């Protein structure tokens, strides 16, 4: 099966970039500064995916849903921000990311990055990793009033790029991405190496899975071929 899409949107953390080591380092420095014990990187990685506020709260409480004291959270936020800024740009693309983006761009797809990470972190990360130039649009966690799993970010990108949601695909690593794509009416493809809160992706809920992004190219019908097919149909008619 090959998908006929014009737009491919990518999640950032756990899909394009391996950001977990830097996030874990910043979170543990924050915890130490607050007099709290450090956490294993695997545990912190399981907290990634729903924005920095939830990440900090989960690190403070050791729980996915529990709320920390407001005063503690207010103290923790700037600490995490400062520690993360110092190390964020050390994050590297996962294997296959750069050649996949190069090939997709060459074939004429519109590309976008959609993440729950704040813009202040997102844009420098993409620049430092050499990925920023691939994307027509970058929508961060604070770009709009709502973020994934709400479909607002995806629908906003589709509208701005004049693409129907049914002609778009989201590539991500988590249940958050799956829910957003379903709500928006987009195709969704997942990778197994990301940060889905420590759980395996339920493959029954996605259109396809790829081990790395270079495999994505084989799943897509190049836009140029779609256009040629349409022109032939018009001529025959």
TrEMBL record:
Catalytic reaction list: 2-phosphoglycolate + H2O = glycolate + phosphate
Pfam families: HAD_2 (PF13419)
EC number(s) from the headed UniProt entry: 3.1.3.18
Cofactor list: Mg(2+)
Active site positions, chain numbering: 11 (nucleophile)
Pathway: Organic acid metabolism; glycolate biosynthesis; glycolate from 2-phosphoglycolate: step 1/1
Listed GO MF terms: phosphoglycolate phosphatase activity
Keyword hit for Ion transport: no
Amino acids binding Mg(2+): 11, 13, 173
UniProt keyword Magnesium, yes or no: yes
Top-level enzyme category: hydrolase
InterPro entries: HAD-like_hydrolase_sf (IPR050155), HAD-like_sf (IPR036412), HAD-SF_hydro_IA (IPR006439), HAD_2 (IPR041492), HAD_sf (IPR023214), PGP-like_dom2 (IPR023198), PGPase_prok (IPR037512)
UniProtKB keywords: Carbohydrate metabolism, Hydrolase, Magnesium, Metal-binding
HAMAP family: GPH_hydrolase_bact (MF_00495)
Function text: Specifically catalyzes the dephosphorylation of 2-phosphoglycolate. Is involved in the dissimilation of the intracellular 2-phosphoglycolate formed during the DNA repair of 3'-phosphoglycolate ends, a major class of DNA lesions induced by oxidative stress.
Entry's family note: Belongs to the HAD-like hydrolase superfamily. CbbY/CbbZ/Gph/YieH family.
Protein's recorded name: Phosphoglycolate phosphatase
Natural source organism: Methylophilus luteus
Organism classification: Bacteria, Pseudomonadati, Pseudomonadota, Betaproteobacteria, Nitrosomonadales
